[in-house]
Each structure stands twice: as structure tokens, then as C-alpha cells.
Amino acid sequence: MALKVDTDLFAHEKDIDLGHYLLVLWRYKWRIGSFVMLMAALAVAVLVNIAPQYVASGRLMIESEQAKAVSIEDVYGLDSGNKDYLQTQFEIIKSRRLAEQVIERLNLTVHPEFLPKPPPRWKTWLLSHVDTAPNQDPMEVVRGSLQPYFGWLPLNWNPAPADPAADLERRRVKLLYEFSRRLVVSPVPNTQLVDIGFYAHSPQLAALVANTMGDVYIDNHLDAKLNVTRKASEWLSARLDELQQGLRLSEERLQRFKEDNQLLEIDGTVGLVSREMSELTAQLAAARQRRDDARSLLNVVRRRGADSLDDINGISEISGHRLIQEMQKSEVTAAANVAELSKRYGPKHNKMIAARAQLAEVRSTMRSQVRKLVSGIEQEYQTLNASTIALEQQLERAKGQYQEQSRVEVQFRELQREVESNRRIYETFLNRMKETGAVADFNAAHARFTDVAEPPLYPAKPNKKMLLLLTVVGSFVLACVVALAHNALTDTITSGDQVEAKLSSKLLGVIPLQKIKKDQRLSAQLFFSEQAASFSEAWRTVRTSYLMSHLDDGAKRICVTSTVPGEGKSTSSYNLALALSQLEKVLLIEADLRKPVLAASLKLPSYQPGLANLISGTHNDHDCIIGVPDTDLDVMVAGTAVANPLELLSSEPFKAHLMRLSQQYDRIIIDTAPVDVVSDALVVSPLVDSIIYVVKYGKARRELIRRSLARLFALHAKVDGVVLNGLPRQESSYKRYKSYYGNTRNA
Fold first, then answer.
1. Once rounded to an integer, what is the mean pLDDT over residues 190-196?
2. Got the DSSP string for 254-307?
3. Going along 439-556, which residue ranges are E strands?
4. Cis amide linkage into residue 645, ω under 30° from 0
5. What does the alpha-carbon distance between residue 139 and residue 124 come to, in Å, rounded to a whole number?
6. 444 within 8 A of 229, measured Cβ to Cβ
7. What pairing do the DSSP bridges indicate for beta strands 54-62 and 586-590?
8. Over the stretch 215-260, which tens digit does the pLDDT of each residue have?
9. Residue 704 burial by CB count (10 A; 0-12/13-18/19+): exposed, middle or buried?
């Protein structure tokens, strides 16, 4: 089974034709070469006048851990261990202040490299040739003479008078800018090293400035440290007096407070009162408990009654009393004795009477004791109540005393804290002042040179060879880009491929460009010249293409036209007729009656009769048709100039003569006026069998060509194809003709 390939997938793909781009660049080679040479010459002229600059570089090491006599980092406010410390130092080196110090130390304001440049020669020459009155500025005269002619330009024709102070400040700013531009500070990665370089026209000056910049940076840092130390000492000294006075006042207030409140030790007094309150609170709680118990007992006794012995005995507090228990034992004994005796004796027996009397006495005594006990309970309650009240009053007095002592303690602590705080601040400032005084004359540098700058032997810039090479390469690339862009943006026909792609027409042939002088036409004998073999061979190719297209249709009448004048239409008609005349009997008719050129090309007299005379009937064929010497070609020039060319070409006599001559010749080539200019070709097109359209390389716009072809197609004219005329030789397929054929030409 055969594999079917879908060619539509590749329909929109477009290969990059490098050969086409190379041909385009080759076509622009002289322009590209001229531009490159011009840029190279300008570069050489500029580089010759540029003074070389030398760069000298010294290397500094910035200490991140500086030598210290004592620790006073807080005074300086500089953390050398911070990761931004080195970057800060690099920026300090590039600061304007250090630059001003270097300029002042080296007196660069009067150095020749930094003095104002003298005025240009043209300005000096101009001012020297200006006639001025005494005390008159020549520039004012020049401006006054130019203002009437160039006053429309946005220029300051009346500048303000010169200000010496402003000029001096402007010079200072310019010098600073120039110095900063030449200074190069380059940190060495991952180290504490920094390279300080300076560009100058003098190697010695470059080394001197680089070393001086390092010295100024080191001195500036030491000066800054000393200034900070001095200012810190002054400020600390003044502040210390204030702190000492404040400490003394706070101590006096504390002592006065202790004396007023008769305080010896605030912690012992408050603790004693606190312990006393704790004891009173415990005693009060116990007294209240006892009072409450006594009250409860008293309430029970009062509720049961003091005379009810049995009820009273039911109270544990009473029945458990020692006397009551003894009395109860006595009662039990007496009752037992009565009971024993009652078994042996009668009620009236003396022993029974005595025993009952003893029992009654015991019970009477017990009642008496109970009453006393109840009375004691009441007295005990009264005593406990009075004691509780006394303890409460004593506790209230202790609380008041404690609160007073607490208030005194708060005030005392506040005054004491103020004294301690003032003492700490005073001691801190005193220590700082001693430290700053100790390091006031300590001049340990934080940076040092590891390599001093030496005068260089060779200039650093400009690298003239490299700049010249870059200029040549850059200008070449730029010229190539511009050439390709111009070729891409050009809206004309510049290659044979564009004829079919842009005009949708067949390409009959490509005619190479022939070099001639300006305002001259190609020689009529060029077709037979040995030096133009490729030119004649190109027309033979056009002839072959045309004949192959009309093998059987018998087309005889050929119209040659173009879009605009200057495309080589008449020359193309003549050379095509020469090529056809080598095979057939051919007549060339010059139908461009508005601007005829054929008679002049063939060196015929201006009064030579031609087509206009034939149509008008003033001359016959014999008078109007002449043969070209040394060829088989017959030509009919335009003839006498007429005022109505279009009417003549559209007349019946022209049609009749054209039909009649078609019987006498194998081919008739009619040269007509451009289509976009006049309508002559449109009138002639219905009378001919085919049309050959001439397009000159890079002449007419594509849209204009398409519009002219559309006008011909609208009249159903048969356009056989396009002849691309004037293609540069390097783009012609015939550039290899001579190398292949030598001097041999095929007829």
C-alpha cells in the first residue's frame, strides 16, 4: 500500500533563501563598502585626536575588626561587623566630600588636564575677524549679525551678563563631575579589599590621585573619629555635671523624707506591723469562736430555763462540768443508799429519813451549783464579747498603722529608685567620659594600603584597534541590516521570483543591466557587441520563450509596453525585434508618437517619415519603412510629430495599414507609450495578438504595475508575460555566460 503524503501541510512553509539575501547584499556592496569606509575614516579621525588615558590603581584593605583601646562602639555608632559596613565604606570613598579634599590637596583646579578647553579654531578665527568697538564683546557682535537671519531658532540671543561667582561655581561643579567620572572604586569580591583607580592623560597624575584618594580616605576616617570623640567628651562632661547635681538633689530628698517620717529601716517597721496584724487576726478569730460558742450555750440555757435541772443536765457543757459530775456521783450514791435502805427499813425509819435527807441535800447542792454555773456562763459570754470587741478595735488600729506604713514605704521606694537610677546614669556617663578621654589620642587607622598605585606604562583607553574594529564591524552589520530592510520594504520588482509571486504573470526573461553614462541611451549596436554577450543572449532567451508560447496560434502582431516612462520599453522593443529578425522577417513600428526615440537611436534625421506620415497619407510604405544596416530588421519610426496621437492610433487607416503589413511580415512589433501615462497601449491592444510587458528593476511600484496590467486585462488583452529589465549583473542568470561560452555568441 503506497503511503499518501499530504502536501498541503507544507503549502505555507517557506524556506529561508540565504542565497537571495547574499545576492541582495552583493547588489548593495558598493553602498555598504562606502558606508563602512566612511565610518572607518571618521573613526580614525576621531581616534587620532583622542588623547590616551592611563589608569593607576592602588589597593586598600579595610579592617572590619579595628584596634580599640577600650570599648566605645556606642559612641561612634559604627558596627564594623555589619555586612553593610564595607559597602558603606566603598560609597564613602566615592563621596563628593573626599573628591573635594583630593582636588584641594593636589590643587587640581590649575592642573592642565582640568583647565577649561580653549575655544575651537573656527570660533577663534571668527572672533579675530570681527570688528568691534573698545570694550565690546565680539560674541555680541556675532550674535547681533546672525539674529536677523536665524532669529527663528530657539536660541538665547541675549544671554545674561557673566557672573564671576556663578562661573566659578560652575567650574567647580564641572571639575567635581569630571573627577568623579574618572575615579573607579572596585571592591574585590569576598574580601575586605578595594581597588581605587583613576584615569588621567598623565601616568604620574593617575598614580598620584589614586594614592592621595586612599590617604585622604584614611585621614578623613581618623578625623571623623577624633571629632566624634571630642564632641562626645564635651557632651559627656556637660551632661555629667547635670547628672551629678540631679543625684545630689535626689539623695537629699530621700534623707529628708526618712527624717520626717522617723525611719530607720523601712523593711523592719512594715514587717513588724504586718506580723502584729497577723497575730491579731488569729486572736480575733479565736475570740470570736469562743464568744459564739458561749452565746450558743447561753441561748440554750435561757431557752430551757435555769430551774429545770433535768433539762440543764441534758446540756453537754453543763453535764460535763467537774462539779456537776461530782454532784451527780453523790446523788447516785445517795439514791442508791436510799434504795438499799428502803429494802430493810420503812419510810419512817431514822436511817431512811436520814438517807432521803442526804439525797435531798445533794440535789439541792447540785441545783445551786447549776445556777452558779449558768451565771458563770453569762459572765463568760460577757467577758468573751468584750474581749472580741477589744481585739477588733486593736486590729483596726493595726490596719491603719499598716496602711500608713505602706504609703510611707511607697514614697520611700520611689525616692530610693530615683536615687539609684540617677546614680547608675551618673556612673555610666562617668565611665564613658573616662573611656573617651583615654582614646582621645588613639589614632589606629582602620584601613591601609596593601599595594600603592604605580604610574602605568601603557594607556588603558581608548583601545584604538578594538574601537576601529568594532566600528568597521558595527557599520558593516548596520549597513547590511539597512540594505536588507530597504530591499524588504521596497515596493518595486527586484527579482524574477517577484514577477510571478507579486504580479501573477509569467516571466519571459531577465535582461541584465548595462552600464552607461547618465542621460544617455543604450547603443543600437549593443546587441552585436562582443562585450555585451550576456545582454544579447538574454534577448534570445526572451525570443525563445515567446516563440515557444506561440508555436501553433500564428500570433504576428506584438505590442511592447510598460507602466511608466524610463523602463527601457523602446530599447526592449528594438532588441527583441533584432533577436526575432535573425529567424523571421520582422517589422518594428514605433507607435509611441508622444516621445519617440527610435530615430535618434538609429541616427536618422528628425524629418524621417514614419507611422504618423503613413496614417496621414502623406507618405507610402516605401518612404516610411527603412532597413537597419547589417541586419534583416525593418523599422518604421514615429515620423512627424502630431497633436492628436491617440486619434491616429484609433483611426481606421492605422488598422488597415497594420492588417496589410501583417501580410508582408512574419512578426510586427509595436512599441507603444506606457500604460499608466496615456491610453495609447489600451487602444492598440485589441489590434495585436499578444502583449509583452516590460518592467524595470526597482522602478515602478508593484501596485502601479498591477493596476496597469488590470487595465489591459479589462480589455481582454493577451499579455504573454513580463520582461524584467535592468537587473544588476550579479543577480542575472547570465553572469556566468562569458566564463562558459567565452566570446562565442549563438545566433
1. 89
2. HHHHHHHTT-S-HHHHHHHHHHHHHHHHHHHHHHHHHHHHHHHHHHHHHHH-SS
3. 447-451, 507-512
4. no
5. 11
6. no
7. unpaired
8. 999 888 888 777 777 777 677 677 777 777 887 887 777 777 767 7
9. middle
Distance CA 90, CA 183 (A): 12
Residue written as grid cell 557672573: 163
> For helices 464-489 and 18-27, what crossing angle results, to 10°?
110
Q: How many CB atoms lie within 10 A of CB 166?
A: 10
Question: What are 275-331's pLDDT values in tens digits?
Answer: 777 777 887 788 777 777 777 766 766 665 555 555 555 555 555 555 566 666 776
For residue 270, the model assigns a pLDDT of: 56
First and final CA of the chain: distance in angstroms?
52
CA distances for 85 relative to 52, 89, 206, 729, angstroms: 36, 6, 28, 71
In the β-sheet with 54-62, what is the strand arrangement from edge to edge?
183-187, 193-200, 54-62, 447-451
Q: For residue range 607-645, list pLDDT tens digits in order.
A: 899 999 999 999 998 999 999 988 999 999 999 988 889
Predicted pLDDT at 169: 86
Give the cell for residue 596. 519617440
- What integer pLDDT is reported at residue 557 of this predicted model? 93
Question: Does the pLDDT value for residue 333 go beyond 90?
Answer: no
- CB neighbour class for 607 (10 Å; exposed up to 12, middle 13-18, buried from 19): exposed
CA separation for the pair 616, 671 (Å, rounded): 19
Dist CA 457 CA 55 (whole Å): 10
CA–CA gap between residue 104 and residue 175 (Å, rounded): 11
Please answer whether residues 203 and 189 qualify as being in contact, where contact means their C-beta atoms are separated by less than 8 angstroms.
no
What gap in Å lies between CA 362 and CA 543, rounded to an integer? 181
pLDDT, average across residues 715-723: 92
CA–CA dist 54, 18 (Å, integer): 46
CA distance 686 to 559: 10
Strands 557-562 and 447-451 come out as: unpaired
Region 528-546: what's the mean pLDDT? 87
Determine the Cα–Cα distance for residues 5 and 270; give it in Å rounded to an integer: 112
Query: Whose CA is closest to 69, among 437, 383, 457?
Result: 437
